[in-house]
Structure formats: structure tokens, C-alpha cells
Amino acid sequence: MSAHQLGEIVSLVFMAFALGMDAFSVSLGMGMQSLRLKRIAFIGMVIGLFHIIMPFMGIMVGKAISVKIGELTTLVAGTLLFAIGAQMLFSAFNHEIKKVVKPAGIGLLFFAISVSVDSFSVGLSLGMSGVKIAIALLLFGAVSTVLTWIGMLLGKKVHGFLGVYSEILGGSILCGFGLYMLFG
Fold this sequence. Notes:
Layout: H1 3-30, H2 37-60, H3 69-93, H4 105-116, H5 118-129, H6 133-162, H7 166-183
Helix pairs in contact: 1-6, 1-7, 2-4, 2-5, 2-6, 3-4, 3-7
Subcellular location: Cell membrane
Pfam family, one: Mntp
Organism: Lentibacillus populi
């Protein structure tokens, strides 16, 4: 392996961690819901899959879409995260409201899209750079899966300590992260 190839892989590992930190941060909040380990494992795999699909889609349309799409994806992701967090907050204060957004079904789909949509923009640039696409996609998926698991397991531990207030904290984390994506 040449120094250039090693440098490229190291760069991709750092990029994978940067992209996976969204999933980690948001998973801390989601992990505060009472979830079984099996569900946490499944959610991590779905997040990892979306961290492969989204940059792949970005790579495929890289030359056809302008740079402006990066701003739009951040806006959509931030809005989705804020909405999920707000719903968690409202359900924590009003016990009559059923949880609409759970990390299952359509809720899991929204969750996965919201934390992986920024990797679409990264895919746009990767498609034009000539990087080893298969290695990049596998690294993005593996790192985001592991970071999601870590975040959800840490969130689960915090839930045990905070009890009833954990949903408020989890919703606040999601709202804050959504606002950060929108305005930060």
C-alpha cells in the first residue's frame, strides 16, 4: 500500500467519523426512549445503511446537481430533527398524546434520513474527486452504525438515571441539534 493510498484511507476514516457524529449526537436523545437492545442494533444498521445509500446517491448525481443542494439538505435535516424533538417534548408534558415518532417504521425512516442527509452532499463531492467509492461507502456505513450504537446505549444509561425526565432531555437534545443544523 502506497503512502498516497494510506493517506486517502485515513482521510476517509476522518470523514466517516465526522459524518457519523450526527448519528451519535441524535442517538443520545433517541436512546433515552425505552428501547430493547435488539431494536438498538436494528436502528444502528438502518442508520449505517442510509450512510451508504445517501452518499451513493450523491455520487451518482454529483455532476448533475449544483452546490445549492447542500444547503437544502441541511435545512430538511434540521427541520426533521427539530420536529422529532418537539414531538418528544410535547408527549413528555402531555401524557394523553401518543408518541407519533418512534424509531420504528416511518419514524425510523425519518430518523435515518435526518442524520444521513448531509452525507448526500459529501457524496456529491466524492463523485467528482475520484476517491475509492466502495471503501468510502463501507467506512461511512460502518462508522455511523457503531457511533449510533454507542450513542443509543449511552442514552439508555442516562434514561435509567433520569427516569421520567429523560424524554424531556432527549427531546431537548434533538431540538437543539435540529436548531444547530438550521442556524449554526
